[in-house]
Amino acid sequence: MKAYQLVAWKRPPEFREVPVPRPGPGEVLIRVAGAGACHSDLHLQEFEEGLLPYPLPFTLGHENAGWVEEMGPGAAGLSVGDPVLVYGPWGCGRCRACRAGMENYCERSAEMGAAGGGLGRDGGMAPFQLVPSARLLVPLPAALDPREAAPLADAGLTPYHAVKRALPLLGAGSTAVVIGAGGLGQMAVQLLRALSGARVVAVDQAEDKRALAVALGAHEALAPGEEAVHGILAVTHGLGADAILDMVGAQATLELAARAARRLGQITIVGLGGGALPVGFFGVPWECSVATTYWGTIPELVELVALAAEKRVRTEVELFRLDEAPLAYERMRAGRIRGRAVIAPEP
Fold it and tell me: Of 63, 208, 82, which Cα lies nearest the Cα of 123?
């Protein structure tokens, strides 16, 4: 089969012919319906050799959905043909964090040599993907098209985890800010509207993305910089936002977050933009917490699938054929993807 693989660091991915994998004990073979293309894939392509312990080559695509094609010996709980969503971060399955469904925070991750399918092990940008255990698969209800559901595995789960940890601050009269209205930010806006009583403000430099954020539920959308700082302070009567989710993580966006947050508030750094926020006594408002997050848990993914099946949130998807994967990344790099690019190996 043809697979879109990262074959060397600091080089573009390539299409390669590879064998169709066969599932061993406990493993499950998935026929891929859709594989989301993520900005972190662009970072992978730019990393220096030795920065990550991932063995090369491996197939890209870490937010995947499809149908069970074959169950390996001993694998149970699913049937051939079942539509499933693949949980992205693959842990050891045995440590305390993994047993609680938090494989994103596996205590043995340093020993694993890879973070999951599409991140050191073969992902979904191929007709088939091998998943090491059925525990990493979440059944999809009939209401969800697997191609459109694929981004839930990361572009949905990552902001869902960040939003959930902010919910105690987001009662009636509160304000939540989402910086970056791309794939993750669009989902964060919807989740905040569905789960909280907060006024939701989106911040993005692109006018079309600001308009889409409003269409998805944001009360208002602002351009970054001084306009955003003044706008957030205006709607909060000078107090600042209760929770700020930075989906970009660049230096400029983190500085914006620090200026727009309130005392006792929360800043969550989700994006991998390379910025740093000095946390000193005068660096952020008093008792404002600053945290990073990484992906989300398996139970949270189950919850998110239920929300999507109830139409309380939806993915904004632009489909590409497998041979169009380079085009999808090119358009993503140029900021010309409306929501989430999804590579569909099948017509």
Answer: 63
Count CA atoms within 13 Å of residue 232 on its CB side.
31
142 burial via Cβ count (<10 Å: 0-12, 13-18, 19+): exposed
Contacts of 309 (CB under 8 A, 6+ apart): 141, 143, 144
Identify the helix (H) or strand (E) that includes residue 51.
none
Distance between first and last Cα of the chain: 15
Using one digit for the tens of pLDDT, what is the confidence trace for 333-344?
998 888 899 999
Q: Which of 235, 297, 237, 244 is nearest to 267 (CA)?
A: 244
Nearest to 290 by CA among 303, 299, 277: 277
| Residue 170 to residue 174: CA distance in whole angstroms | 5
Q: Is the pLDDT of residue 48 over 90?
A: no
Under 8 Å between Cβ of 120 and 9: no
Q: Where are the alpha helices (DSSP H) in the chain?
A: 39-46, 96-99, 109-112, 146-149, 157-166, 183-195, 207-215, 226-235, 251-260, 298-309, 325-333
3-class state of residue 130 by DSSP: strand
Place of tokens 């919850």: 303
Tens digit of each residue's pLDDT (9 = 90 or more) over 146-169: 999 999 999 999 999 999 999 999
Tokens of 232: 């957030």
